[in-house]
Predict the structure.
Amino acid sequence: MSHASLILLGHNGAGKSTLIRWLLGFYPDSSHHPYLEQWQTVPQLKLDELGFVPELPYLDQNLTGADQFRLFSRLKHVSLSHKKMCQLLDRTGLEHNVLKLPIKKYSKGMKQRLMLSIALIGEPKTLLLDEPLSGLDPFGHKQIIDLLLEIKASCKLILSTHNLQDAWNLGDEIWLLQQGQFVYQGDKPENQAALENLYFDHPPLVNNSSVKK
């Protein structure tokens, strides 16, 4: 993980989200998942230097945006003023009035942006993002891409995605997984077409024993 921005690619079931959980320390023993034995050389991340956005926002639907900020800031042991909350919202394009709204009134895209705002609490050295752009309309998508391009100048990004254009735009280094195996680890290819060729050269493997003849 020597580059400013690492992109995790692979088909559904390739192991991207499992690898993210490994990086977070969710699997203390390699016997807890069949993919883990081959990942023992991949270092886990320092949680006190990390901001994390999961694929599905784990948010209490009855709490307000401000409540969520206060909860996560306490977990991070970071003092967070109302002014700082608003500054973090500004970075992800959310209006300040969402701080007063319960999460159940947020759209999916609003939840994604709120989680990204929360992940930026304390100016983390590494930002780990699992499919952070899903659920955003084209305007929101562009805004978050622009934000991530800005963030990567001062913070290491680790990002999983299925969007190859996003991978090309954001990535410096590519890790491509195929059913738990690293089939590529290195600099991103010379252009987006080459990245697409690399990706489609590694489809899900078919278990011949389960295929009806």
